[in-house]
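Input/output pair, single chain:
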Amino acid sequence: MKVLVTGVTGQLGWDVMRVLRARGLEVIGATREEMPLDDPAKARDFVTATRPDAVIHCAAYTAVDRAEDEPELCRTINGTATGAIAAACETVGAKLIYISTDYVFPGTGEMFYETNDATGPCNVYGASKLEGERALQDAMPSGRFFIVRISWVFGAHGKNFIRTILGLAKTREELTVVNDQIGSPTYTADLAELLADMVKSERFGVYHATNESVCSWAELASEAIRLRGFQTRVTPVPSDAYPTKATRPKNSRLSKSSLDVGGFHRLPDWKDAVARYLSEIDLE
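Output:
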């Protein structure tokens, strides 16, 4: 089986490449130079030329605040290019796994969002990822695709919230972190294993895939600091204390019942994932 992976220099793409190779699959890693998503036609042609059996589309425009100033570029990369890649997959008969986000939902209330709940993004980034979902579905009437929504991503290969917090904790006695945004972290090493299971299956559909249990950003910061052995205090504050250009959802709870129905394993608890992540980056 030949699998094309986009976004290979990012946290998730790097782990997906590692896991697929460990499982003995033939892997093609596409960089932004080889497969420019700001030029959807070239992205489509790259898929057509390589003729993979499957594509795991990890690459995306993810600068949430900057997207408010670059809406067209964000929509081209996350929406139009995804549709072009999907059309190429349909042409060559390849499966497609598209990585989406909790940001497609309004982010209100306290319920766990199911895969078929009403969407309603609160910022440009979320709207662009939803456009990608819809473009994919329109371009692949065969239905040979997976849409996998994730949130709060962290992995060993790249920058993320935990790295930032631990960097600050080295020199500060106190950190203020928001506590009214609730969701689940997603460890890319765990997610990559799930995506590798999916790509070899035919159980297509929309899935939510984050680590188990929920927390606030303040709780996530506190756990990472505790595990690292720092004495830095974490002071919880409301989102209003850190105004951002793009609105953030306060409710990022995603129900993983879709994984149960699809016969896939759930990811481990987020605290377990953070502990393993810290052990992994200790080896760097």
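The mean pLDDT is 97. The two ends are 31 Å apart (CA to CA).
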